[in-house]
Structure formats: C-alpha cells, structure tokens
Amino acid sequence: MNDKLRIMVVDDEAIVGKRLKPSLEREGYEVETFGDGTSALERMAQKEFDIIVTDVRMDDVDGMQILEHVRAHSPRSKVIIITGYATVELAREALVKGAFDFIAKPFKPGDLRAIIEKAAVELAQKE
Amino acid sequence: MRRQADIVVFMEDLNLQPVAVRYAAALARRMRARLLFLLLIDPWGGDVDACGPAGESVRKFESQCRVMVAQEARRLVDEKVPMRVEVLLGDRRSEFLKYMAGAPAFHTAVWGGTERSLRHRSARGPQPWTACIARELSCPFVIPRQKNTRRTRGTPSG
Asked: I need a labelling partner for A81 at 20 to 30 A (CA). Which of A113, B59, B72, B102 fits?
C-alpha cells in the first residue's frame, strides 16, 4: 500500500510548482502540480489528495473556490492558502472558510514544509 | 473598573528593548490595560532550504522562547501590571496576518525590537515584514526611542 501523503499544488505562476515539487518530494510526499484551478478540480474528481496548497488569485477558478470545493467534497483534506496579496481580511476569509493555514508569498520552502508537517500530524491523528 | 484593550509589544527576536518595555508598562499601568508580548519568530531564519525544529522540538522551542521573554520582561514590568507572552513560529508576515484575523483588541502597539531591525529589508520581499504591522493595525503604532541623555560640553551638572 502506498502510504505517501498526496499533495496537490495549484498556482498559475509555474515557478512555484517547479520549486515546491522537488522540495516536497525530497520529504517523501507524492506531489502533483497544476497551473490553473479548472484542471486541479478535474483531477480532484479522479483522485483524492490529503493536502491542497493553492494560490488565491487565478483566472477561471480561484483559490477560495478551490477551498470551498474541498471543504464540501473532501472535508478530510487540508487546504493551505498561499498568496502574494496577503491581507488580514484575506487571512480571515480563508480561515473562516476552513483553510488549514495561510501563508504570504514570498515564503521559504521550510515555512511551507513545517505547515505540511503539522497537517500530516493532524491527518494521522484522525485516522 | 473595566480593563482596557491590551497594549501589545511586537518582537521579532529575543532581543527585547528595555526602552520599549518601560514605555509599554507605563502605558499599561496608566490605562489599566494588560501587556501582551507577541514574539514572531522564524525558526528557519533566512536560509531558504534550512530544516528548522520539527514536531516536539518546535513546542519545546516555543516554550523556551515564552519563558525567556516573560523573565526578561518581568524584570522591567511592575508585578501589578498583568502580562502574558505569546509566541508565533513561522513566516512572520503570515503569522502576523493570521493573528490579526482573529480581531484582537489592541489599545496601542509598541515596537519591542531595535530601530535597525524595523528598517531592515528582507532579500525575499520588497518591504520589511514590519511594514505590514503599521499598515494593518488600526491602533497607534509606537516606536519608543531612548532619550539622548548625554550632556553637551559645558553644560552644568545637577
């Protein structure tokens, strides 16, 4: 059985996925990256992810819509919001809507890894 | 008599400035407010790929920071002034925004670090994270400065 944690990264800035994928794979996670919200939602219909890391501002489907979709269809999954337009209002909206965590860009991979580790612990405790 | 909202002292490391503590304590006493020392610390520092403390060691690190700040602050704050310390670990700007998302009631915010660190620009961003404090707070943000007590030549003493 594959017990690797499945992580989805959604960001229309390709560099984000390109940098995060190897960094998270080195930690032993299974990572898939997507450059837009629509293809991310399509993939979610086929496969369940444990953790979804998503940007907020994207064309078509934005990060808040992804968060709402995950909360409605896969409440066990943890959503981590990343954004270059971080404000208190946005942080509040994300947390009220059920985001596991919120991180302002630019951030260091170590910051995200620490949050993912926390999410992994919570997921393990619930199983 | 009802106590006012907290006087918050923002810190970004364990280098707590006595001038800031004394200012905040005097204000808290006058306003019958509580003092909150809010330490935002990034255990991963400036190193992009560094592995900071994890799991249990994070909690231990947090607890040690809390004790150290509380001891240092209590040396300068009258016992009658209620105070507490909160430690937020991680990216400082993100942690600050999340904390503020909880709508804490602050009467005044005081910068507890050095003036130099307030101006320091991060290599990763166009602005220091502390610029975020001034922009997002709805209460006054004070940067206490040490008064220059040095006497000029010829000034009579006493």
From this structure: B59
Instruction: With respect to residue B118, please indicate whether it lies within any of the assigned structural domains.
Output: yes
| Rounded Cα distance, A95 and A79, in Å | 10
Q: Is residue B154 situated within a structural domain?
A: no
Reported as a pLDDT band with limits 50, 70 and 90, residue B48 is very low
C-alpha A10/C-alpha A1 separation (Å) is: 26
Q: Is there a contact between B100 and A103 if contact means CB atoms under 8 Å apart? A: no
Cβ atoms of A113 and A24 closer than 8 Å: yes
Structural domain including B118 reads: 6-45+55-142
B151 in a structural domain: no
B91 vs A88, A111, A117: nearest CB: A111
The answer to whether B12 and B36 have CB atoms below 8 angstroms apart is no
Q: Does domain A6-126 have CATH number 3.40.50.2300?
A: yes
Q: For residues B25 and B36, is the Cβ–Cβ distance under 8 A?
A: no
Q: What is the pLDDT of residue A125?
A: 86
- Rounded to an integer, the average pLDDT of A17-39 is 95
